Structure formats: structure tokens, C-alpha cells
Amino acid sequence: MKKYLIFITFLFFASKMTGQQKQEYYKEVDKKSVESYYLRYFVKVPNNWFSYKTDPNLMAHSPIEFKDSINSKGIFPSVIIRKNIFKGRTLEKNLKVFLRFHENTYPKFQYILVEANHKMYGKYYNIKFSLIKKEGIELIMASIFSINKKNYIFFYSSSDSNFDRYLNEVLNMVNSFEIIKN
User: Fold this and answer.
1) Alpha carbon separation from 93 to 42, 82, 88, 125, 178 (Å, rounded)
2) What pTM does this model have?
């Protein structure tokens, strides 16, 4: 009888969990959703780009002409901002941890490192590298900031053929980044 009650309880909770509304990923979200996602900072998304949620619940931005082809497996231009991925307190420590992580994850990891200057926050690093996927070569640029002992990383990824085409718009997004003071 005890096993039967446990089984019934399990079925009850399982049915409740599957009945919950699932988040729709890779579908366009409105400006209000973007603003509520970025409560503590601001980034100017170009007018010819759109915003959408990715799995696992990250906000991404891509050129509007890719709206119908966005999915979890394709290689298309996109920008995602991550906060506090690493525990380092300085820009140099965050860079070191980022590079070490990628060198350990990808044995043949090679990159180009460029120091840049943000109009409000000063020095940051752009790291450009590539990954080979089933779908082709994905180029990635990670822009790493350290602001008030917190790290922020812009990830721009694209196919080799589209990377340079959208790079200036991405760099404008990076340079529009601003922490919102409360």
C-alpha cells in the first residue's frame, strides 16, 4: 500500500510538472521583455536587429533577416551578454580564466586578442576564435569587461561568411553598454 501511495504521488507531481507552460525559445520577444531582462544594464540593439530568448533562458539579438532561421543548431549572427561567468575580480584575471577554460575545453584553441577602450569603462578585451561544428565554422568574438569587480562578456558568434558583415554593428552594441545606477 505504501508503494502504491508513493507511485500515485509521483504520478500526480509528474503530471503537474508536464502541465506547466514551457518557455518558447528562439521566438522574438518585445522591447518590454528585453528591458525587464536587462534590469541592471543597457545596450542599444540596432533597429534592424531583433531580440529573442535562447535556451537556457538567455537574451540574444540577431539581424532581422535571420528571424525565420533562428534555432538551437544553426550558425547565424547573434549577440548574447553574460554577467559574472568567472570569479575573477580584475580584467586580467577574468581574461586569464576565460583563456584557460577554453584551452582546457578545446585542445587546439587558438585566438586573437585585441585590447579595446570603452567610452565609459575604459579598457576591455576582444578575443576572437573559431569552433568547428557539424554545420560549419563558427567565429566568435568575446568582449570581456570588468566593472566594479563584476565581469560582463558579450559573445558575438556568426558563420565565417557573415562575421565581418555585422561586426561594426556588434562593436556599436558593445560600446553602447552601460550599467544602470539605482
Assistant:
1) 25, 17, 5, 12, 22
2) 0.84
